[in-house]
Amino acid sequence: MSLVTELRQRLNRQRGPLGLRLTNALTSAIEDELIAAGEALPPERELADDLGVSRSTLRLCLEQLAEGGLIETRRGAGHFVSRRILKPVTRLTGFTDDMVSRGIQPISRILEKTIMPVPPDTAFRTALPLGTPVFVLVRLRLAGDEILAYERSIVPVTSVGEDYDGTGSLYGRMDRHGGRPKRILQSMRAVEAGPEIADHLKVKPSTAVLMIRRIGYGGHGVAVEDAISWYRGDRYDYVAEING
Ligand code: 16G
Q1: Which end of the chain has fewer CB atoms < 10 Å from its terminal CB, N or C?
Q2: Is the pTM of this model over 0.70?
């Protein structure tokens, strides 16, 4: 079946505003690899005509896909399916936000969840008083069935509530309690995956992965998160716009 026929079917299978249906249709077509990574999308005018949508609607959808990192737009050359996940470092988002904005279903496997007094190294990094009860959440983060990261987040219990069971988005939960971080300090470095991390990420030991440390601060400058994550280095591109 041609790409256009597939896209038309995907458009018609959904309800809701045309722009949203078009974004979903294109997202799912890319996810299902109907257009492979690195391949070009049909030219804008042709695609708009074939799908019976206006060029401006199509362009808005393409902008959204580009913003989410699913496609890359090269001036004069067209739109290409990204080979990697682009993550802007300037936006304060969590894993769920990043996946949802790309039309990907985020999945978490909880490996550990405990309430305990703040561990001394976290207290040292965050200046949380010793003895502060914290929620420790260790998760595998997946996009569909693909493991992208292994992550340990430590947050004060007051930020999530004592009855938090660790499911769903941590930042979503924080939004409904003390609030997600408003400012973060983040460091990132490439490390070789040791046996444990390699096993979690299902990569060969010694594969290069991104180790990211994040300390998040709430409104009054009090730390609300101490997290360490290992992201698949071959799936993530951190991008930053730097103004001089
Ligand atoms: C991201 C954050 C992590 C945060 C999580 C919340 C990085 C390197 N880490 O993975 O610190 O806890 O998002 O995601 O970006 P959630 O809201 O989906 O649980």
Answers
A1: C
A2: no
